[in-house]
Amino acid sequence: MPQLPKRTWRLIFLGIVAVIVVWIGSTTFYTVQEQEQAAILTFGKYTATQEKSGLHFKLPSPIQRVVKVPANLTQKLHIGYREDSGGKVTPVESEALMITGDENIVSADAVIEWKIANIRDYLYNIDDPEQFLRNSASAAIRSVIGSTKLDYAITEGKTVIQADVKKKLIEIQEKYGTGIQIDDLKFQDIEPPEGQVQTAFKEVTNAREEKNTKINQAQKYVNDRLPKARGEAQALIEQAEAQKKSRILNAQGDVAQFNAVYNEYAKNPEVTADRLVLETLEQILPNAKVIVTDGSGDTVNYLPLDSFLKNSGAKSTTSSGTGGTTTQPERRPGRCRTMNTRKWILTGVGALLLVILLSGSMFVVGEGQYKVVLKFGEATRIHQSPGIHFKIPFIESVRTLPKYQRIYDSQPTTILTKDKKPIIVDNYSVWRISDPHRFLRSLQTVSAAEGRIGDAVYNAVRRKLSEIEYGSIISETTARGDINDEITQMVKDVAANQNYGIDIIDVRIKKTDLPEENKQSVYNRMISDRQSIAAGYLSEGDEQSRKVTSNADRQAQELIAQAEADAKKIVAEGEKEAARIYNEAYGKDPKFYKLYRTLQSYTTTFKGEPVIMLPADSPYTRILLGER
After folding, report:
1. Among residues 121, 91, 87, which one has the least CA distance to residue 108?
2. In 466-515, which residue ranges form alpha helices assigned H by DSSP?
């Protein structure tokens, strides 16, 4: 067999060294981004957390391994909808629709802001913590809304519901040690389902606004009607006061005029009387036709009379880079194309056997794992402490089982409740392997275990919920406590009796829903209820508007009626005072008053072109003819 040149051996050696250097370099250094933290695993055991960003050093693989998570990043979980990186929102009706405590349906959309608070728990204490967060959030929201009435949930109850759900969600994460920190929970909307139901609710809002509008318009009428009535009443009083004062002043003026004439009359009664008569005749006779009759009734015209005057108001753009994967040239440092001598052949074979023996005798237990050592198929020992362990090569094998908590989503189940109402219930279970020996003997695989759990949950849910009325299922409470706790205990008992080697930690109602035909009946009832409420608002608006306006009219009429009565009293007071003034003046000489007032009456009575018939022997005729 030909011997290789020394130069060839040197190149082979340098190649092997280069591969080792590259391998060490590529598995020794790692980078941590700003939003990340890194878990350092030494032979599978969690040994350190790297919180600082930048370039870091570790022992080469497979001694140490790095798992990076975005622990410094505030992440969002959407319930009832999904939002992509461009802000486009896609509703998820199956998550959003929820049954309220008064057996109605609302659509609730929430966003949860969360961070990874404990990397070790997040990675190794529970399977798929993000899915568990979604399940527990959905369960918490439905539990709280299921204990809340519709009208409260869609109005002022939103803040209270947010606080209650957040509190429940925090308690659940702490109970199961998910390593998740809940920073905030906000409801985007809690509203009636879209379509005709939402339209009916909007009609209620519109009817309420219309009611308020009618009441406001009625109040506006009141604000206009009553001030006007008060003004009208005040005007009546002021007119009466003016009339009273005018009447008194007129009386005082008349009396003053009367007294002036009377004082002259008292000095010379006959002359004054004739003068007054003549002055009166001068006023009334120019337009009058005077007829003087004699004793036999015949008429004689003395004076023709002349005429008298007569009066008359995003898209968002998702950039995806198809990064090319750089495939390093395949190096096969451990394979030699030829061996030159038996020495090198034996050395290579020995090294290979040593590697095989070492790899077959060592195994690593990682975080969140059980390693079951099987000797010819029989479980002889179990390792659950993370780190490196040993076994007998070729004779013993290793089986890996999950040690962390697992989440199992059951298939939705249709149940007929105690009060004969159909309801669809969707559960999730939290479980873990507690005894790997028993688990392997009875179940063997995780999928088999979840099949048995699914059967037990199905039977427990059907049996328990058929004993409970619909309303208690929605609120998840009975007189004996929480329904979830009772179902959990029932499934626990089944697992314990069957020696499955598993622990049922919790069984929780994730979702309650109605069959489609029943859901439509609820929608129809909700629409009918809202239409009735809307009609009630409109009727209340009409009634209150009429009450307000009629009350305003009544008050206005009362104000005016009272003002008219008061005005009459005021006028009467004026008349009374005027009469007193007249009586006091005119009572001095009734005979003169009679003459004085008679002459005044002539000036107002004989207007236009009157025809006056006087007896020939009348005193006025004699005065008229100048015979006196």
Report:
1. 91
2. 470-475, 483-497
Residues 147, 85 share a domain: yes
- Taking the C-alpha atoms of residue 525 and residue 103, their distance in angstroms, rounded to an integer, is 10
pTM beyond 0.85, yes or no: no
- Regarding whether 152 and 41 lie in a shared domain, the answer is no
What's the rounded Cα separation, in Å, for the pair 248 and 242? Answer: 10
Q: Across-strand partners of 598?
A: none
3-state secondary structure of 22: helix
How much is the average pLDDT of 599-612?
78
Query: How far is residue 236 from each of residues 293, 383, 566, 570, 574, measured CA to CA in Å?
Result: 52, 107, 9, 10, 15
Structurally, the chain folds into a number of domains equal to 3
CATH number at residue 117: 3.30.479.30
Residue scoring higher pLDDT (260 or 3):
260
Smallest Cα–Cα separation from 43: which of 21, 70, 23, 62?
Answer: 62
Q: pLDDT of 170-221, one tens digit each? A: 999 999 999 999 999 999 889 999 888 989 999 998 999 999 999 999 999 9
The tens digit of pLDDT for each residue in 449-505 reads 999 999 999 999 999 888 888 888 887 666 545 788 889 999 999 999 999 999 999
| Distance, CA of 371 to CA of 368 (rounded, Å) | 10
Residue at which a domain ends, from 43, 69, 95: 69
Strands 289-293 and 611-615, how do they pair? parallel
Q: Is 481 helix (H, G, I), strand (E, B) or coil?
A: strand
Grouping H, G, I as helix, E, B as strand and the rest as coil, residue 36 is: coil
Query: In which domain, by residue range, is 31 found?
Result: 6-69
Is 105 found in the same domain as 26? no
CA distance linking residue 415 with residue 462, whole number of Å? 6
Is 614:284 a contact under the CB 8 Å cutoff?
no
Verify that 61 and 151 share a domain, yes or no: no
Q: Is the domain of 12 the same as that of 62?
A: yes
Helix (H, G, I), strand (E, B) or coil at 621: helix
43-56 confidence digits (pLDDT tens)? 889 999 999 999 99
**Same-domain pairing of 117 and 23:** no
Long-range contacts: 75-78, Cβ < 8 Å, 24+?
Answer: 75/113, 75/114, 75/115, 76/111, 76/112, 76/113, 76/114, 77/111, 77/112, 77/114, 77/130, 77/133, 77/134, 77/137, 78/109, 78/110, 78/111, 78/112
Map residue 113 onto helix, strand or coil. strand
Q: Identify whether the C-beta of residue 146 lies closer than 8 Å to the C-beta of residue 133.
A: no
Looking at every residue in the chain, the average pLDDT score rounds to 84
User: Taking phi first (over 0 means left), then psi (-120 to 50 degrees means alpha), and beta for anything else, what does residue 74 get?
Assistant: beta
- CB-based contact 39:364 (threshold 8 Å): no
Q: Where are the beta strands (DSSP E) in 163-321?
A: 180-191, 289-293, 299-303
Q: 74: closest CA among 31, 119, 35?
A: 35
Domain end: 48, 69, 90, which one? 69
